[in-house]
Write the structure tokens for this entry.
Amino acid sequence: MNSPEWQKIEVLADRKYPVYLGTSLEELGAYLPALPEKVEHILIISHQKVLDLYGGRLMKGLGDYRVNLLVVPAGEAEKSLERLSQLTTAALGYGADRKTLVIALGGGVIGDLAGFFASVFMRGVRLIQVPTTLLAQVDSSIGGKVAVNHPAGKNILGAFHPPQAVWTDFTTLESLPWLEVENGLAESIKHALIADPGLFNFFETQVDSIKQRDPLIWRTMVTRSSSVKVKIVSQDEREQGIRGLLNLGHSFGHALETEMNYRGVTHGQGVSIGIVAAAHLAGAKGFISLAEVERIKQLLRNYGLPIAIPGQNPQALLQRMQADKKNQGGRKILILPQGIGNAVISQDCTDNEILAAWQQVISG
Ligand code: NAD
Ligand code: GLY
């Protein structure tokens, strides 16, 4: 691989797999012979927009391989059983078999959908994740979780289907709209808050460079943030313990997203508010100082992420949290920061404490 400064980190899970950072789309083809089993047929699953931008570069390196493209419309609604069935029909039409390799080229929606397809097609075929959004590069492409949605909820039908490799080309982020960048930034800041105080400090000191999309600074940001995810899933691939920390901000954020019917709030904005609510709760429990709560809020504010939600009803938001998948035996399981760069799983937060945290983000 010729790209300057590419690097490989490994997910040390049940089956070890590499995350390549800073490699180029054109070079993926040359890497495929390194897989344990020969590749003959490839299905690339992607969106038309992403294919228009990057399909040519990826295809260039795939030279003599038999490749078919499966194009999926953009949007969360496409993570559906209906789309899965259509992908299956199309794949069979192209003669896909157990040796087919699926390449997921896109953001988290493509990664989850193509990944779930790969997990069930012919009882499981190989998958390579080629993430093209910030969120996908630092988070969703790593760790093997794949899923589609069900009317009963997001990611209800899913599996663990770790890829053969994650292939991250930083240059794909150049075309990402800022609203999508924000979604990835919220997750990256979350990674810093739960496990990497140095990265938190980096986010504090590099605000302008990050906003101006300085390529070297982005390289560091993506590398450090994805390294947090790699480290955590390497210790707990199946989310029996420490992987749960990645949910910091998500129980609050998800409650807000559902309460607002997924309108007027993006996932990143929901996570940002959720992080602030978790920080207030942690502050009330004495896990972090008030100065640290302010530091967290200031950082999110600096990136244009919201830290307040005036006008919401705290009782309604608390009610939404009753349905959280992570609750156990009626108890709410919440992830709270403990200082900057560390977090804990808390099982003893009372409804009054949670309400008080919601009040804080409502009053701003
Ligand atoms: P997304 O996949 O919907 O992508 C956002 C938009 O950006 C899409 O319209 C897409 O076409 C476009 N896009 C993608 N790459 C682009 C590029 N390089 N330039 C310009 N446009 C580009 O959104 P997302 O935030 O990447 O992913 C969200 C999904 O990820 C959710 O479904 C969520 O459940 C899932 N997720 C999964 C995990 C996991 O561990 N499996 C973790 C976090 C999130
Ligand atoms: N995004 C949470 C996880 O992968 O576990």
Remarks:
- The pocket of nicotinamide-adenine-dinucleotide (ligand 1) is lined by residues 47, 49-50, 53, 74, 76, 79, 106-110, 112, 132-133, 135-136, 139-140, 143, 145, 154-155, 172, 175-176, 180, 183 (CB under 6 Å).
- The mean pLDDT is 96.
- The first strand starts at residue 7 and ends at 11.
